[in-house]
Please model this.
Amino acid sequence: MSSLIIYYILLYFNVHYNIAIILGYIGSSIIGYFLNRIWVFQARKNSFSSSLVKYYIVYISALLLNLICMHLWIEILSISNKLAPLLTLCITIPYNFLLSKLWVFKESGENKNEKRGI
Model:
């Protein structure tokens, strides 16, 4: 959500929507990693460096998906650059969540058993 706030602030200052998207993604990436790792997926035992690399692979691919969607909405379908990011969120949020859950913060069988007290 912080990337969306940054996006709208930059739009207000007449920054091109692609630049606003990229800066929003950069601005929200670090806090997003730690919130996902600790709070959303509770993956404190996973390797920090391994999950960080995977996180940024997913994050950069989501950024590219976002840029493609925004181009489609704005340049091809003539949707407002203020509405387009909301449509894009309907695609990128599930994309990020699923890849983060199934790959980035996936716990090994050993970690799952520790959580259950086995």
User: Anything to note?
Assistant: The chain is about 80% helix and 0% strand. The first helix runs from residue 2 to 12.
